[in-house]
Specification:
The complex is a heterodimer.
Chain A lengths: L1 H28 L10 E7 L2 E3 L2 E4 L3 E7 L8 E2 L14 E6 L3 E6 L7 E6 L1
Chain B lengths: L18 E4 L7 E6 L2 E6 L11 E6 L14 H13 L7 E4 L9 H11 L6 E4 L3 H4 L5 H7 L9 E5 L2 E5 L16 H12 L7 E4 L18 H8 L5 E5 L6 E5 L2 E5 L24 H4 L4 E8 L4 E8 L2
Parallel strand pairs in B: 4-5, 5-6, 8-9, 9-10, 10-12
Antiparallel strand pairs in B: 1-11, 2-3, 2-14, 4-13, 7-8, 11-12, 13-14
Helix pairs in contact in B: 1-2, 5-6
The chains are: A alpha/beta, B alpha/beta.
């Protein structure tokens, strides 16, 4: 689980630096340059747990939750910023975080399941 | 499992001495008979007192219509078998209480399948309270349209039947991150008023989805503000609390309050803390599954005021 989180972090940092590079290139060349895919992070739901439970991302990162349990779950923001509704087995939900901040969320069916997205 | 403890009762017939806890997880049925605060239990089928009950009612729970994975790909089938068992009871139950999770995903078709299946149930009037699976997609709209007629707030209500006061509570709405089930201040205020008019000798049956005591906090198996409700109920001589949610039988007696959770008609869940998560027990052999699903029948005898719960498995 820890290793997966590290690789998420690495890939998101890598993408963020690419985006920064692309922007710089754009400014210099003022011409079409190949755009990079936006940063993405996946959060798995397994055994009634969000993993990783805490994810730190850059603004503009798209977060995708995927439910691997046989029981439906949700990813529901405590501030109503986002709400996946019911995710049955293997269903996904994505939300792109544009603003900086800490965004706690939980499963509305099993509220003891909690997680947070830190955008900075 | 058959644990019996006969506590000394005071002259008013209410046991105040202490605390008794008995857990029957899965397996054979049990009869619980409460007489003047003394609790007795015998293995199902051996209690001859039940024949003299003034009336009986059944509790079923956690039908999860829409669930289609291991260990049960036919939850409609096991519900229908449960109904067949109810229809075979020697004394036709006058009421049926469903303690929530009628559906798996709050889908209209799932609610309608349950209603359709229950049409053949010979159990008199039917009453429901929602589980979190019934309300989490649309804040309970589909549930309330079908099962919430004549209810208050987000689905709570009370009624009287032959001298017993029944109270259906909703503890699955407005759940908070990291929290347990919740009754909420509006419903608690209503409960206080509802009970105020009742004499302390009125037998009370409270039914709600999530257990009204903390079974296992780590899995969210409890209700945040249940202690407030219990405070309102403590002056009554006979209180029976029927819950679902945990898909196994668990019983506890505290003073004059009996807590009882029912089996699911769909799939069993692990004992508290005995698995990584509260997900379905999947590795159940087909011939064992029906021993882990079932119904509770409750018999009430007006005089001397006894209440007995009989748990039956499908096989």
């Amino acid at each position: 689980m820890y290793r997966t989180f590290q690789s998420y972090l690495r890939s998101s940092l890598w993408t963020v630096s690419l985006v920064a590079f692309a922007c710089t290139s754009l400014n210099i060349l003022a011409a079409d340059v190949p755009t990079t895919a936006p940063a993405e992070v996946e959060i798995k739901i397994d055994n009634f747990t969000f993993s990783p439970a805490t994810v730190t991302i850059a603004p503009g990162t798209k977060v995708t939750w995927i439910n691997h349990d046989d029981i439906p779950h949700t990813a529901t923001s405590t501030t109503k910023l986002f709400n996946s509704k019911a995710l049955d087995t293997d269903e996904k939900y994505s939300f792109t975080f544009d603003k900086a901040g800490t965004f706690p969320y939980f499963c509305a069916v099993h509220p003891h399941m909690t997680g947070q997205i830190i955008v900075k | 499992m058959n644990e019996i403890e006969n506590n000394q009762s005071n002259e008013d017939g209410i046991d105040r001495r202490g605390f008794l806890q008995c857990m029957a997880w899965v397996g054979t049925g049990l009869v619980w008979a409460m007489q003047g605060g003394i609790l007795r239990s015998t293995v199902f089928g051996k209690d001859t007192d039940l024949a003299s009950a003034d009336f009986t009612f059944v509790q079923i729970s956690d039908s999860h219509i829409g669930f289609s994975k291991e260990p049960n790909k036919d939850v409609v089938g096991t519900l229908q078998q449960t109904i067949a068992r109810i229809n075979q009871l020697p004394k036709a139950p006058e009421l049926l209480l469903h303690t929530g999770d009628l559906s798996h995903l709050s889908k209209p078709a799932e609610f309608d399948t349950l209603a359709q299946s229950l049409k053949v149930c010979k159990a008199g009037e039917q009453f429901f309270v929602p589980g979190e699976h019934d309300v989490f997609s649309d804040d309970g709209k589909s549930y309330l349209e079908r099962y919430g007629k004549n209810t208050l707030g987000n689905g709570w209500y009370s009624f009287d039947h032959k001298g017993v006061h029944f109270i259906g509570l909703v503890n699955v709405m407005n759940l908070k991150a990291g929290g347990l089930g919740q009754i909420g201040p509006d419903q608690l205020a209503w409960l206080k008023d509802d009970l105020a008019a009742k004499s302390s000798s009125t037998p009370i049956v409270v039914f709600a989805h999530v257990p009204l005591w903390t079974v296992y906090e780590k899995w969210g198996w409890g209700t945040e503000d249940s202690a407030v409700a219990m405070q309102y109920l403590k002056r009554f001589g006979s209180v029976t609390v029927l819950n679902g949610h945990i898909h196994q039988i668990l019983q506890k007696v505290e003073g004059n309050v009996i807590f009882h959770t029912a089996r699911s008609t769909a799939f069993p869940q692990p004992e508290p803390g005995k698995a990584e998560s509260p997900g379905p027990i999947k590795n159940v052999a087909a011939d064992q599954l029906k021993k882990m699903l079932g119904l509770s029948a409750v018999n009430y005898v007006e005089n001397p005021g006894s209440l007995a719960i009989v748990d039956q498995t499908l096989e």
